[in-house]
Design brief:
The chain is an alpha+beta fold. Among the domains are: 79 residues, no CATH class; 76 residues, SH3 Domains (SH3 type barrels), CATH 2.30.30. A hairpin with an 8-residue loop joins strand 2 and strand 3. Helix 3 packs antiparallel against helix 4 and helix 5 packs antiparallel against helix 6.
Length: 275
């Protein structure tokens, strides 16, 4: 009886040990697979292959439910978005759409330090093209257009000496000062059907004279840039609170003044805090 009892005890212990060994093997294998996937994801990430890194981190997050991998996914998604912006900007540079490229790159330089070197390289790549564009305006004696385009670029790249020098050349060639055209507003009379009344239009005309040929700051959280001086004109871009714009021309209408800010864009003074 004692021998039988001892055998049962041994068999029981053996079974427990076997189960523990199997559990250990399974746990160790899963741990190995997780570690292997993590190393793979990190390798993709280090090589800036963010799409593949995202796939692997998604697998890790699904398998483990760990916040660590969820946080990594958020980081990778941010990098993918930044890469897409850079690629879009580089496409604009290739198409000689330098203002559009700089609008993306200069905003990125403020928001994402990780890609600062790449952004700076792309900005530097755009500068020679911008210089050629401005110099062509001067060669064609279109000095006003050269000054306006230079001012547009200087809003994005304040203090850029190459662009500022070309603007100065254009101003001297045109026999004008660097402050640009000092033309005053042509007053618009309000008709009965347009609403607003003469006092309202007088106020808008006065506002138009105040903002013409000045640099203004956007105060709205988002401001549509339109293709013409009308709310019915299509939106061709967006400005954000804190952005600066130079007002080259104005069109006062009842309730607001439309400001021409270059590159075919118009914004309302309402977006600048003038109501």
């Amino acid at each position: 009886m004692d021998l039988l009892k001892n055998r049962k005890t041994v068999y029981g212990l053996s079974a427990v040990v076997a189960i523990l060994v199997i559990v250990g093997i399974i746990f160790g294998f899963n741990h190995y697979k997780i570690a292997k996937l993590e190393a793979q994801a990190q390798s993709y990430y280090s090589n800036e292959d963010y799409d593949k890194a995202k796939e692997v981190y998604q697998q890790l997050a699904d398998k483990t439910g760990s916040q660590k991998y969820t946080a990594k996914l958020t980081e990778v998604n941010k990098d993918i978005e930044a890469q897409a912006k850079i690629k879009k900007a580089e496409g604009f540079i290739d198409s000689k759409m330098y203002y559009e490229a700089l609008s993306i790159l200069t905003r990125m330089s403020k928001e994402d330090s990780k890609f600062a070197d790449k952004v700076d390289d792309d900005i530097n790549q755009a500068i020679p093209g911008i210089k050629r564009e401005l110099e062509e305006y001067i060669d064609n004696m279109d000095y006003k257009k050269a000054v306006k385009a230079a001012d547009d670029y200087l809003l994005l790249l304040p203090g850029n000496k190459a662009i500022a020098d070309i603007k100065e050349t254009a101003n001297k060639s045109a026999g004008s000062s660097s402050s640009g055209d000092s033309t005053k507003v042509v007053y618009v009379q309000s008709g009965g059907s347009s609403g607003g009344g003469s006092s309202e239009m007088a106020r808008m005309n006065s506002l138009a004279n105040r903002v013409l040929n000045t640099t203004q700051t956007i105060t709205s959280s988002e401001a549509n840039v339109r293709s013409g001086p009308s709310k019915s004109s299509s939106a061709i871009g967006t400005l954000y609170a804190g952005d600066s714009v130079y007002v080259y021309d104005v069109k006062p209408v009842p309730g607001r003044v439309w400001c021409y800010i270059g590159n075919g864009g118009w914004v309302s003074t309402k977006t600048m805090g003038y109501n």
